[in-house]
Amino acid sequence: MVHVFFSLLLMLASPQDDPAATKGRQILNQAIQALGGPAYLSLRDFHWEGRGFSFDHWEEITGMSPIVEWDRLPDKYRQAQGKNRDYIVVVNGDRGWDSTYRGVAPMAAADVERARLSRRLSFDVLLRFRLNEAGVDIRSTGTDFVDGQPVDVVEFSDADSNVEKLGIAHETHLPIRREWVRKLPNREREQYIETLSKYHTAKNSTVQFPFYISRERNGIKTTEFFLEEIDVNHHFDDSMFERPAGKERVDVPSRKPRK
Question: Could you tell me which CATH number the domain at 2-71+136-234 has?
Answer without folding.
Answer: 2.50.20
